[in-house]
């Protein structure tokens, strides 16, 4: 399968980022509220956004396979967020959206479309984590069929404060008993919540 093939949903175009998207990417990544629960500080310059975009997105499109999408409204095809799957062992599923588009189901719509594609790729599973203080992110995970597995406490870097994360997983290959254990094994404070 090609790297980041375009996907269309009723309201959205999910596509690769391009260098022309740097200003739109900066609007997403420079907003303090949008980045509250993301593992980096808000970007401070268009140059920093260009570097981040190149390293995290544009360069990854050279690989034979990947899923790193710009979320765009069909009306103008300008990025308002992103949804992606990390190519590491966790297959971490992540997303963000400009705040003026929050609470409209757009991340859920985009995420469901990407998961539908992933089910055809042979990827065995995806994981996603959310800060316990960001339950809306957990609601997206549940909406796309992910199941809560466990929680753990991490000294979050580079922001350097403790965060309790909930880890969700979706096994795409039918092996429902599989649980990705890296976070459980890595962090000494871990537990299963009744949620």
For the structure shown, list the relevant keywords.
195 residues; alpha+beta; Aminopeptidase; five-stranded antiparallel β-sheet; four-stranded antiparallel β-sheet; 5 helices; 9 strands; 24% helix; globular
Walk me through this protein's architecture.
The protein is of the alpha+beta class and 195 residues long. 24% of the residues lie in helices and 28% in strands. The protein has helices at 22-29, 46-56, 106-118, 135-143, 182-186; strands spanning 7-8, 12-15, 67-73, 79-85, 93-97, 125-131, 147-156, 161-171, 190-191. The strands form two sheets. A five-stranded antiparallel beta sheet has the order 1-2-3-4-5, with helices on both faces. Strands 6-8-7-9 form a four-stranded antiparallel beta sheet, with helices on one face. A hairpin with a 4-residue loop joins strand 7 (147-156) and strand 8. The chain is globular, with a radius of gyration of 16 Å.
Topology (SSEs and partners):
Elements: E1 7-8, E2 12-15, H1 22-29, H2 46-56, E3 67-73, E4 79-85, E5 93-97, H3 106-118, E6 125-131, H4 135-143, E7 147-156, E8 161-171, H5 182-186, E9 190-191
Antiparallel strand pairs: 1-2, 2-3, 3-4, 4-5, 6-8, 7-8, 7-9
Helix pairs in contact: 1-2
CATH class: Alpha Beta
**Which architecture would the CATH scheme give at its second level?**
3-Layer(aba) Sandwich
N-C termini distance: 37 Å
**Nearest-integer average pLDDT:** 96
The named CATH superfamily: Gcn5-related N-acetyltransferase (GNAT)
> How do the SSEs run, as a string of H and E?
EEHHEEEHEHEEHE
Helix content, binned percent: 10-25%
User: What count of domains describes the coordinates?
Assistant: 1
Strand content: 25-35%
CATH fold annotation: Aminopeptidase
Class of secondary structure makeup? alpha+beta
* Spatial order of strands in the largest sheet: 1-2-3-4-5
Report the major sheet. Answer: 5 strands, antiparallel
Q: Which residues form runs of ≥5 with pLDDT under 50?
A: none
Shape: globular
Q: Tell me the radius of gyration.
A: 16 Å
Strand segment tally: 9
Number of helices in the DSSP assignment: 5
